[in-house]
Write a structure and sequence with these properties.
Length: about 190
């Protein structure tokens, strides 16, 4: 069984979903959504995959004492291959989860950059940490919805063309089709 979920309300919702879905027998969870970029190499609209979750928020910390939580390596590689096949530039990103959506101060951004964080959202590290504890494979993909760069010292808001979301959905659908496809019945080459 497989589920795709967009966690609009962050880490607690992500953790609840992972826990409950794992109890129902779900073995793969694909998260998708948006993240805010902290680095100029990830402009608004960039398609990203959570290469690593940097654990900063309280909910992820309930699942791990480690500083990072990783998505499933096989799913990460599969998303990269599908993006290449679809001609979609996809950037692997270190994503931190934050507790307070509107409290990203310049000092916070500096600290996060010092930890190698490239983007922030409210669910990726918790998705990865909870999935690891629950024995579920997981991956998060999405696009940059807004930017918070120290160089410009301004927030570029969430207003974005629907095309950004359309590309994320196309990539997610491609991943789901691949994961749900029946096995190839042809004999393996000798």
């Amino acid at each position: 069984m497989l589920l795709v979920q967009r966690c609009l309300w962050g880490s607690p919702q992500a953790a609840i979903l992972v826990e409950e879905l794992a109890c129902l027998g779900v073995r793969v969870i694909v998260g998708f959504g948006v993240a805010g970029s902290l680095v100029e190499t990830l402009p608004k609209g960039a398609q990203i995959v959570g290469a690593r979750g940097v654990v900063l928020d309280g909910t992820a910390r309930a699942y791990t004492t480690a500083d990072t939580a990783d998505g499933d390596p096989g799913l990460l590689a599969l998303v990269q291959r599908l993006a290449e096949r679809q001609g979609i530039p996809l950037a692997p990103a270190r994503i931190a989860g934050v507790d307070a959506l509107y409290r990203e101060t310049p000092d916070d951004v500096r600290r996060w950059l010092g930890l190698g964080v490239e983007a922030i959202n409210m669910e990726t590290p918790t998705l990865y940490a909870a999935a690891g504890v629950c024995g579920v494979r997981s991956v998060w993909l999405g696009h940059v919805s807004d930017t918070l760069w120290l160089a410009t010292e301004r927030w570029d808001s969430w207003q974005r063309p629907a095309a950004f979301t359309d590309v994320t959905v196309a990539l997610t659908v491609g991943l789901l089709e691949t994961l749900c496809a029946p096995p190839d019945p042809s004999p393996a080459p000798r």
